[in-house]
Structure formats: structure tokens, C-alpha cells
Amino acid sequence: MFWLPLTVGSFCAIYVSGHLDNLAFVVSLSGYTSLVFFTMVFLNRKMLERSVNEINLAQTGETIRILLRDFEENASDWLWETNAMGEIKHVSPRFAEVARQPQSAIQGDLLAFMAGADHTLRRVYPAEGDVFEPLRRRMIARKPFRDMVMPVNMGGERRWWSMTGKPIEDSAGRFIGYRGVGSDVTAMHRSRERIAYLARHDSLTDLANRTEFNNALGLLMSEGAEPNAALLCLDLDQFKAVNDSYGHGLGDSVLRAVAHRIRGAIRDRDVAARLGGDEFSILLPSDDEFEATAIADRVIDRVSRPYKFDGVIVEIGVSIGIAMAPRDGKTPETLYRNADLALYRAKDAGRGTWRLFDPAMDRQLQDRRGLQRDIKSALREDQLFVEFQPVVALSTRSIVGLEALVRWEHPDRGIIPPGEFIEIAERSGLIGAITAFVLAESAALAAQLPGFMAIAVNLSPLHLREAWLVDQVSEIIQQAGVAPERIEFEVTETAVLETEGRTIDNLHRLRALGCRIAIDDFGTGYSSLATLSRFPFDRLKIDRSFINDLEHNAADAPIVKAMIDLSQTMGLRVTAEGVETERQAAILTLYQCNDIQGFLYSPPVRKAQVLQLFESGRTVTGLGVGCVETVSMVRQATRARRVEQPMPQHSSFE
């Protein structure tokens, strides 16, 4: 506080000199001393504040150093620093840990270190190019960067790092390097890659999914004006029966095995996909028809081989439709549509085969679509009618029943048989209404016929699954006033095998109602003794394919005889369909078949003709009465019986 003695001394000097009477001088001196006083106070305060700030700054710096040390030692991220040349200057323990090297070994150019000294990353992943180029450009331009994710090569393993940094300068403002934070985001990046992969692939089979397959097809079809490709649409045969019999768990195992076999049947450049359910597709980048059909043959062969899971042996098949680009379509939509048409034809051909698209298939599709539109009006405008084919008992040569067969009298196309519109009705959801119409017509006719006469009505597999089926049947029968046993329902062998859930329940309920149940077209599917014993059948109908060559095919005769013996052992009546010759009738009589049905006696006829037949009393046929069974005919039938061989245990009807 030197200003105080200085001020006192100044006043003393003025007093001694005798200038106290000079007021201006005294005021000036007083002002000066006051200014000096306040200046000293101000400077003293500033010096004090500076000292406090320096102390606080030192404490803060120490705190920051402690926090940084703790961050480097314990955090998952790490600090990094380079000099002006981009060379690593500071290596934290965490940096060394994630780099899988000692701190002393981490040196040199930062980007070169991340890529690997021998540029391994670029050699292993050349398609990615120089992944560090964006970061290199920013560092050359001395610009900050944030969360730049890039692959690195650490110990021969590909990892993913996220880097954040900013340029640093010295006190003179000169650039001296970069300082920043890094983090290993490999787990997060792999999770994102997995999510992206699952978005493009089927999670069950690991094949491409519909989205990825459509992208590949679209890309291939966009290459030039004349894209070269082959599209194979696959659909598994009898797969639904596997799910129904063994459950979806085993069904999923089958799908995985099928996918594995498909991958083994195609080449690396081909694309296989699961589109959903039991539908698959294969894309070939070639329009070579021979190549496409050869791959289709290979796929069918491999997929159709038996599968074994925990002692369960499963056998399925696959049908394939093939469309070639550009011949069969130049857009993905057209190619898909035509491959689907070819697949439908392959299914129709008996399954387990392939079909190439043919333009005639498109015309048939248009015809089917026309029928699909017209069938709705057919019900409203009474275009449907029912014909009845007599069933004749071989023992009495008399009519014992009828089978109802629906027909469609189209205003433009004439009479359309059921084989051409029943499936369309099923897909249109009209099969229930058509069956109800046929049942009502049959019940009404049964009410006008003798009490022993039963009329058979065919049940669609789809209709057979409906929960309201039995109630509908009961209502129609009651309205007609006929006994339920006068109605016999025919279900196909395939329908019984493929739809066991609701089907078996409805069959038992129909049987409890009093109706009879017959299994139709027996021998064309995969029935077994277990199948026949599981359902409440009253009758078995042998398919006409076994009767057609009964006279000439030595293999058919013992099969037919075995079917008859099997059925009668189980208490079932047997009807042979498609009997057209007296020779066939004679052989069936010898085999003790109960009933026959076919053109030998009568084709299907209208209701009026049936009533006229019964009114005239002509219900006993001339079969076996008017015709003479020659000795040679009986001997030939007897010889056929003698050469019968025991049926193998794995035959289709055991």
C-alpha cells in the first residue's frame, strides 16, 4: 500500500511550503491521490481474481486428467491422438486392448494401422474399394468428423469401429494433429447386418424370401430389351398330409430338408427362394430350355426321395412349372403368371413332374375365368341340372341305387361336365351351394322311389371341411321327408388322406345322422387298412381305371379281386365303376363283387327318365339273363383267378 505514505508525504510538503492557500493545487493533488487509490484497489482485485482462477483451473485440469484416466481405463470407448502427419501420438490402454496389440506396437499412420500394415482389408474385401477414403479426405482437409463407421482389420478379424475426431491447434493457431474418440461397434453392426439379412431371406429355410427373389428377378428382367432367364415355380405334393399327420414341427423339418436339397440341385449363379408355405421358386440366368428342364428333373429326383426324422419316414413330391424369358414373358409379372399356369398343368398331369409353359395354357386360363364369371349366374338362372346313373346288383341283376351327377347347361357352350367346373366352383366358394342343390334334387327323387333305393351324392373335399355341413344336410333331408339312410355320400380317397381334422368329425356326424358313407375312386391314392378302418365307410367304389383293362391286363385282375376280398372282410359293399362290357361283368361276378355301375346298363339320365323306368317296372336288367355267358368266358375268368399272386404288404390298398 505504497500510495498511503506517498499521499501523506505530499500533503506535508505542501504544508511546509506554505501553499495551502492555493486551493486549485490542493484539489488537484487530492484528485490525483484518489485516482491512485482506486486504481490500486481495482488492480489488486483483478490480481486476486486471476490468482483464484489459476487455482481453479489447476484443480479443473487435475479433475479432467483424473476423469480422462478413468475413461481410458474403464470405458468401452477410447481416446486417440495423431500428429500433423496423421501418425498415432497417444495410445490409451483401451485402444491397445481393442487393437489386440501392446501399446508400444501401435504406431505409424492411423489409417494404415486400421487397415492393417499389409492392407489385408483391401485384399480380403476388394469389392468395397478403399473404405477409408472418406475419412482420409476429411483429415487432409483438416475438417472435424463424427461417428464415421468403417471396417478394420484387427488380428486377422474384421471388426467395425466408429471414429469421431477434430483438428487441434497450438497456441499460435498452427495445426498440430487430430484428437478424438473411438468405439468398437461390431456387435451393433452385425445385428444390423443380421436384421437386413432376415429382411431378404426366409428365416426357416435360409433361402431368399419373396422380396429378395422379386428383386433378383426384376433386376435380371431389366437387363436389355431381351432378358434371358428361366423361372421355375415349385409346389410340394402331399405336404399338407404331412402337416396334418405329424404336426407343423415335423413339417418345418421337411421344409428345411427340401430347401437343402434344392440348393444342392442348382448352381451357384442360380437363385432359389421360398415364397411361403410349401411354394418355392428358382431363377436361372439363362434361356436354355434344356438346362432348365435338366435342373427341374434333378430337383424332382432329389426332393422326392424319402425323408427320415426321428424314425418317421416321410415321402413327398414336387411339381414344377417353367416359363422362359423372353419367349414366355418380358416382365416379371408375365413370367410369374405363365410359370404358375405351367405349374397348374404339372399338378393336373399327376404331380411329380414338370411342364413348360405353352400359349394354349393361357387360352385355357381365359376359358376358366369365363366359366368362373358364368358359374354364379348358373345357380341363379337354373342352368344346373342333375343326372342319375343306376347302380346294379350283380346277384339280382336289378337296380339298387343311383349316383347323382351334376351337369351345367351353358347358354353358349352347351353341356359342361363336372370335371370342367367343379374345381372352379371350389375356388369361387360356390361348391357348398352346388352340393346343396344336388342333394335337394336327390332327396326329392328318393322320396318318389321305392324305400330300398339309395342315391349317392359326391362331397367335395372343401365342402367336407365345413362346420355347417351336417346341419345343412339334415335340413335338406328333413324338408324332402326321406330317411337319412336313403342318402349315401361319396368322398374321394385323396380327400380322406389330405383333410383329416374337420373331415373325420363330419364323417362320423353324417354316419350318426343315418347317412351312408362311400369311399370313391379307391386305388388311385395311398389308402391303407388303417385309413379304411379309421372312417365309418359303408361302401367302397373301385375306380374305373382298374376296370377298363380288366379283360386284357393280367395285372389288374388280381388287384381288383384283392380289393373286393379286402372290402368284404371289413364288411363293406363293393361297387365297380365304369363297367362297359359283359365280359367285365362276368369277371366281377366271379370275383363276387356286389354292384356295378357303368354304360353296360345305362349312362346317366335325367330325373324324368328314372321315374319312367321305375313306373314301367323295367328295373331288372338283361345282364346275366338275356346274355349267354359262354364256357370260354368263364374259363378265362377262372384262369385269371388262378394266376393271382399274393398282394405285397406295401400295396396301396393295405
UniProtKB/TrEMBL annotation:
<dbReference type="InterPro" id="IPR035965">
    <property type="entry name" value="PAS-like_dom_sf"/>
</dbReference>
<dbReference type="InterPro" id="IPR000700">
    <property type="entry name" value="PAS-assoc_C"/>
</dbReference>
<dbReference type="InterPro" id="IPR001633">
    <property type="entry name" value="EAL_dom"/>
</dbReference>
<dbReference type="InterPro" id="IPR052155">
    <property type="entry name" value="Biofilm_reg_signaling"/>
</dbReference>
<dbReference type="Pfam" id="PF00990">
    <property type="entry name" value="GGDEF"/>
</dbReference>
<dbReference type="InterPro" id="IPR029787">
    <property type="entry name" value="Nucleotide_cyclase"/>
</dbReference>
<feature type="domain" description="GGDEF">
    <location>
        <begin position="227"/>
        <end position="359"/>
    </location>
</feature>
<dbReference type="InterPro" id="IPR000160">
    <property type="entry name" value="GGDEF_dom"/>
</dbReference>
<dbReference type="InterPro" id="IPR035919">
    <property type="entry name" value="EAL_sf"/>
</dbReference>
<dbReference type="Pfam" id="PF00563">
    <property type="entry name" value="EAL"/>
</dbReference>
<protein>
    <submittedName>
        <fullName>Diguanylate cyclase (GGDEF) domain-containing protein</fullName>
    </submittedName>
</protein>
<dbReference type="GO" id="GO:0003824">
    <property type="term" value="F:catalytic activity"/>
</dbReference>
<dbReference type="InterPro" id="IPR043128">
    <property type="entry name" value="Rev_trsase/Diguanyl_cyclase"/>
</dbReference>
<dbReference type="InterPro" id="IPR013656">
    <property type="entry name" value="PAS_4"/>
</dbReference>
<feature type="domain" description="EAL">
    <location>
        <begin position="368"/>
        <end position="618"/>
    </location>
</feature>
<feature type="domain" description="PAC">
    <location>
        <begin position="143"/>
        <end position="197"/>
    </location>
</feature>
<dbReference type="Pfam" id="PF08448">
    <property type="entry name" value="PAS_4"/>
</dbReference>
